[in-house]
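ok here's Zinc metallohydrolase, glyoxalase II family, seq below lol
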Amino acid sequence: MITEVYPNIFKNEIPLPKNPLRAINSYIILSENRNLIIDTGFNTVECQTELMKGLEELNVDLNKTDLFITHMHTDHSGLAPALKKRGVQTIYFSQIDGDLLNQTSKRDIFFKALNQILGFKGDNSSSFGKEFGTRQTEPLEFTPLSEGNQLVLGDYCVEVVDIPGHTPGHIGLYERNHRLFFCGDHILDEITPNITFWGFEEDILATYFKSLNKVYQYEIDYLFTAHRKIVRDHQKRITELLNHHDVRLKEILDILRDGRKTPGEMAASMHWDLSHKSWDDFPHSQKWFASGEALSHLEHLAHIGLVDRIEESGMFFYRLK
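and the structure came out like this:
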């Protein structure tokens, strides 16, 4: 469904069937010289059909159109190869997330190791391909962008902002004169972005907090999110997100008073706003995301000195200090 959300800026709402996210907001900025698509949807027939339907409704000439991908997740990057084949000229990505997308063998090794860290038995990471869109199979040729790079599109001059946290290389676009921000999954209305574990060397939750506080300082009238509603009061929403994570951290500390836990055990003990009656009813993908988020919070508590991480025979446990 196409909606003009600002002069010459359109939201293409693409349904994500059988997915708790429901839909992704792909944005299109039109100008006489160049157009820009922001994010794509999964690499599925359903998403591609809806994406192309919206572009055709706007009579978008893909030969004078570029693509900006906010981050590596397949609901944002999945249709990049298809758009390239249809004429899109340049695909913009952060170097970090672009490399993560393309380094499939390293990513698979990481996911297998993470499976063990989370406390799951076996390797079920392949289930993501079935539940959340076809995986990237060939390297994607992209042009890297970083903080301060600018793209001029008619009356709009958007500048790249580094906002890591949801992924290590998440980027957004800020239009300073019109006070617009395209934020991908960095800030969402109604739901909270998943902040998962990306390695022991970085406190990714602290990184996310820093990015939230960074965007808090921007003058923004329209925060164009990748899911759910457009946010009109970004400072209010950022405050809500920070409070949400503060409650999460306190919940984890309370749970740990009963004894040490693996990240998977912690996730099973936490409260989640999902329709499933019990942890056993969660699909594996949702258990994975929940456990990854529990782990990022546990690691944050370890980094600030409130809990200990213990490794025993390849299993990781966390306990109060």
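fwiw The chain has one domain: 2-257. kinda neat tbh
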